[in-house]
Amino acid sequence: MDIATLSQWRSAEPRVLLVGTGGMLARAWERLLLQCSVPVVCPTLTELDLTQPETLKQTIVPGIRLVLNCAAWTDVDGAETKEAQALAVNGRGVEHLARRCREIGAMLAHYSTDYVFAGTASTPYRVDEPRAPLNAYGRSKAAGEVALQASGCRHLLIRTSWLYAPWGNNFVRTMTRLARTKPMLKVVNDQHGRPTSAEHLAATTLALIEKQATGTYHVTDGGQCTWYDFAVQIAAAANPQCRVEACTTAQFPRPARRPAYSVLDLSQTEALVGPMPDWRANLDDVIKRMEPVG
Ligand SMILES: NC(=O)c1ccc[n+]([C@@H]2O[C@H](COP(=O)([O-])OP(=O)(O)OC[C@H]3O[C@@H](n4cnc5c(N)ncnc54)[C@H](OP(=O)(O)O)[C@@H]3O)[C@@H](O)[C@H]2O)c1
Hints:
The chain is of the alpha/beta class. Helix content is 38%, strand content 15%. The chain has ten helices and twelve strands. Helix 2 (24-35) packs across helix 7, helix 4 runs parallel beside helix 5 and helix 6 crosses helix 8. NADP nicotinamide-adenine-dinucleotide phosphate (NAP) binds next to helix 2, helix 4 and strand 4.
């Protein structure tokens, strides 16, 4: 069953529905679909709440061919004390969504995280590596992956990491604001990963969908770095006078444990849609278009 191609979605009746309107990645999708002249249904949280299955039935109606799930409980530290709430959205919410998509024959594109892995590896995590999350958020996202894979719904499960965009709450915007207001920043240098531009993620997801890809893929920017490396690059653009110093995770304790190494292997994705641009190139592009950071 073909889920359709871009040209088929350019119908008067919307065929695409976006869950998580207003979030960082959802905004990237809205812009991309607008540029492609694809109409999209963007329900509010009241109209579509992943924890309220009856809202899914009312809003995700026959005729919808593709559901893009950008919604999640994304407060990693908050999930440590509110694991049940995180699980209700990231675990059971995905189960409800996959069931509804299967009922109406829609494809579900869903996002997960590098935090489903323990971070003890020293080479990039392949898509089929066993999940072993270190924190409550990771457990809730892992539960969503399991539910989706067991659902029988045609799906694309995309793991990503360290998301940033010109808008929303993200590390690039936070570091930009801090670099402009503080003479020195300390940033952890012992967590390794891959930053990901939300716009690049949406565009790559679209490319995968157009290739009729299903199953699990990893999508991030190319290259890899530590949060410190990432911050150095951001601060240099925001305020070269600001000094960035490296510190350890132990010196900067947070409620949720983070994986030390969560570099996602991109080989399967790159084989289908070509190489992922280096994170420095994507970052430069985002910095140029950054919305005011306040
Ligand atoms: N941010 C990252 O660094 C990162 C890294 C790896 C993976 N991911 C994954 O990438 C995806 C997109 O992340 P993001 O950073 O764009 O997220 P985000 O900016 O936090 O947006 C999440 C959206 O989901 C909505 N939402 C929360 N609970 C909901 C519910 N019960 N029903 C419907 N919508 C609900 C939120 O609404 P409210 O704002 O009203 O709560 C918000 O609009 C998520 O799956 C996330 O787990 C993100």
